[in-house]
């Protein structure tokens, strides 16, 4: 299994541009997540999905959109990129995300995004 | 609110023990986790502990949990250069039946000869 894959690895955007960060998992996990990691900070949850067709906001959803048309794919869309969105973005998946259950999340290698 | 705090840096000599500490706020967390991030990579689960346990040992790793003080620690025995990485503590949080993870800022462990 490839696990969780993300593309691209690096990207530089100009202010106001848009882009989609791709995420795919081949473990048949129901739960998928998008995080951003800023220097010296923990991971912040942007959006998550509990299954195909179902998505919900995390802590920092503003400026982002997601969709989940299949179990495998969970793309993150940035509209009108801003310098505040400069960060490293991680996609993750887990078999279960229900409360009080063991929740091992599997992470992709990340996308380093710079907005200038 | 939910918060997880860790010190940002730890430097140890190869062969010594490393102890990484974490404090959390959500006393209802059923599991607490330690994730490891190597340079240029995503996070990977290192170990976890169930909340009704005080200690868990897994080879060179020992996790201690003090629920009263909401304190979690990770001890790495015989630390090697390959242990150099960022270590994240995570607690569970969330509502509505969904279990999200709240991560600390990460402790960067540097192992020197």
Tell me about this structure.
The complex is a heterodimer of chains A (116) and B (113). Chain A has 116 residues and is mainly beta. Helix content of chain A is 0%, strand content 48%. Chain A has strands at 4-7, 10-13, 19-25, 31-37, 43-51, 54-57, 64-66, 76-78, 87-94, 106-107, 111-115. The radius of gyration of chain A is 13 Å and the shape is globular. By secondary structure, chain B is an all-beta fold. Chain B is built from no helices and eleven strands. In chain B, strands 2, 4, 5, 9, 10 and 11 form a six-stranded mixed sheet that branches. The chains are: A mainly beta (116), B mainly beta (113).
Mean pLDDT across the residues of chain A is 92
In terms of per-residue confidence, which ranges of chain A show pLDDT below 50 for 5 or more consecutive residues? none
Largest sheet: number of strands, sense, barrel closure of chain B: 6 strands, mixed
**Subunit arrangement of the protein:** heterodimer
Fraction of residues in β-strands of chain B = over 45%
Please outline the major beta sheet of chain A. 7 strands, mixed
Helix content of chain A: under 10%
Question: Could you provide a short overview of the structure?
Answer:
Chain A is mainly beta.
Structural topology:
The complex is a heterodimer of chains A (116) and B (113).
Chain A: E1 4-7, E2 10-13, E3 19-25, E4 31-37, E5 43-51, E6 54-57, E7 64-66, E8 76-78, E9 87-94, E10 106-107, E11 111-115
Parallel strand pairs in A: 2-11
Antiparallel strand pairs in A: 1-3, 3-8, 4-5, 4-9, 5-6, 7-8, 9-10, 9-11
Chain B: E1 4-6, E2 9-13, E3 18-24, E4 31-37, E5 43-50, E6 55-58, E7 61-66, E8 71-76, E9 85-93, E10 100-103, E11 107-112
Parallel strand pairs in B: 2-11
Antiparallel strand pairs in B: 1-3, 3-8, 4-5, 4-9, 6-7, 7-8, 9-10, 9-11
What tags apply to this protein structure?
heterodimer, A: 116 residues, mainly beta, 7-stranded mixed beta sheet, B: 113 residues, 6-stranded mixed beta sheet, 5-stranded antiparallel beta sheet, 0% helix, globular
């Amino acid at each position: 299994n490839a696990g969780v894959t993300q593309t691209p690895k690096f990207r530089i955007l100009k202010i106001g541009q848009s882009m989609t960060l791709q995420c795919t998992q081949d473990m048949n996990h129901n739960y998928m997540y998008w995080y951003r990691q800023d220097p010296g900070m923990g991971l912040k949850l942007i959006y998550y999905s509990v299954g195909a067709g179902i998505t919900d906001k995390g802590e920092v959803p503003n400026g982002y959109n997601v969709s989940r048309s299949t179990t495998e794919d969970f793309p993150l869309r940035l509209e009108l990129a801003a310098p505040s969105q400069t960060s490293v973005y991680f996609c993750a998946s887990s078999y279960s995300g229900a409360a009080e259950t063991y929740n091992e999340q599997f992470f992709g290698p990340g996308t380093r995004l710079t907005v200038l | 609110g939910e918060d997880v705090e860790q010190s940002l840096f730890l430097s140890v000599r190869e062969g010594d023990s490393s102890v990484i500490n974490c404090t959390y706020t959500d006393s209802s967390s059923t599991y607490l986790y330690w994730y490891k991030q190597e340079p240029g990579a995503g996070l990977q689960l290192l170990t976890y502990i169930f909340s009704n346990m005080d200690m868990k040992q897994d080879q060179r790793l020992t996790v201690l949990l003090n629920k009263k003080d909401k304190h979690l620690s990770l001890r790495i025995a015989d630390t090697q250069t390959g242990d150099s990485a960022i270590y994240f503590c995570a607690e569970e949080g969330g509502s509505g039946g969904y279990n999200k993870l709240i991560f600390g800022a990460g402790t960067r462990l540097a192992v020197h000869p």
